[in-house]
Amino acid sequence: MILGTVVARQGPVVPLLLRAANGREHTLSAVVDTGFNGWLTLPREIIAALGISYEEQTRAILADGSFAVFDSYYVTVLWDGKSETVLVDELESEPLVGMRLLHGYRLTVEIVDDGPVRIERM
Predict the structure, then answer these.
(1) Which terminal CB of the chain, N or C, has fewer other CB atoms within 10 Å?
(2) What is the CATH number of the domain that holds 45?
């Protein structure tokens, strides 16, 4: 189970542990974004700190219907006690957890400041 907290002006936030191919680890907080159907987004500075390599460009349709192209990378995330290698889109915002990472889990959020966030395997 993954536990987090609702943070004012951000939403549901959970902790993540990321591991690059060279073993370098980075702990951070990420916003759970149910409107994002990818795995994970990270800003350029975290991607650089992890030293992960460019993989490909990914096209996406944004909420307003416009298209965007993102540089994408692979990173290993420790998710619910297991290591998973996932595709990360570079996005200059706070890190986001998307629906692909949540697949197979139940998300429960109490939408109040400091409310609990629970992500548990189904």
Answers:
(1) C
(2) 2.40.70.10
